[in-house]
Amino acid sequence: MDVITIKMSTFVLSLVLTIWWMVLQRTNVNDQSLRNWAWVSFCFLGYGSVSLAGDVYFQNASTTLLASLFLIAAHAFVLNGLTTHFMAKKQHIISLICIGIAAFSHLLIPGNETASLAITYGLLISVDTLALIPLCHVKQPTQRQSYGVIMLALALSIFHNTFIVLLALSAGLADTLPMAWLPQYLALGNLIIITFILLSLFNMYMWKREQTLKTISRTDSLTHWLNGVALADYAQREFARCQRSNTSLAFITFDIDHFDQVYDNVGHLAGDKALKHVAKVAKEATREYDYHFRIGGETFIVMVTGLKISDFKGIAERIREGINQAPFYISTQAITLSVSVGIATLEHGDMNWQAIMERADRALYGAKKSGRNKTKLLTTHGLTLVKNE
User: Fold this and answer.
1) Does the structure show a pLDDT above 50 at 389?
2) What is the pTM of this model?
3) Which CATH number is 3-217's, of 3.40.390, 3.30.450, 2.60.40, 1.20.1070?
4) CATH number of this structure's domain 228-386
5) Which residues does the annotation mark as catalytic?
6) What gap in Å lies between CA 31 and CA 38, rounded to an integer?
């Protein structure tokens, strides 16, 4: 395969993926990562087109410089995209510095092909190494599986670029390339790396999209609490973990008293506002890392681990009192809500989490039956009223 064919392949691949990323970005305008990946493809397209034009039509210092700047810019956008995604930081300054160094260095040594290679690929090593840093913060196994592809692509790029720099240095930075096979090797190596990087970005985007859809399917759209689908997964996992480690586990379930009257008296929009208000107040009464679920209608569940029974009672009472003492407003009308709360904890002999949840539901029913706006705890010893001490 000759150099022109290889560079034509690079151009076509970059063109197709640039169009694909731009179409995706137009349909997902708020996704910053898509914008970065579109720029990566565009810069690789610029590199491929300028490099191809230099071989087919004219070859001079200007085309070499422009192709190098496009190549560095593409890797810089990979760096920017990864740091934005993982660390909420943008690395535009580093990217601009690398591009500026490349441009200035090429102007200082016009016509020296070997020195240009050393500078360009040396900067690529720096950019790719910086891009690997946010990936090193990935700890979850599912994330490692997805982001491992881009890590491998960057590692391959660093290896390839280091080899080029070493060749240039071994040639003593001569004005012309010392090896006849080097242009073909450069073109083929860049094609492989560009293909690997673009496909790994596609893989990362699809994984992120899958996770987003999974999150949406497990989240209540009104309150942003987890839903019943998520409850089954998290409850099973925490039940097994707490049994293995002999850790306490409790379900605190509550629903809004006479909630149908809210809908009847002030309407459905006010009812939705009441649900959001209850979720907000209840979440403030719990720990950030507790599990919060809305399983339909006006029923909520908080799953708490690692505390004493007295602490579980305290959380339940904070939820009940907090909601009762924090009215929400429809225009200027203050509406006071109350909730009935049921608690159940993991006990010896429980075979599954559903057994605990069933006791919590019975405790909730007992709280409602005894007059509402109360907290009841159900254990194997019976149903007891919880009072805030």
Assistant:
1) no
2) 0.70
3) 1.20.1070
4) 3.30.70.270
5) 298
6) 11
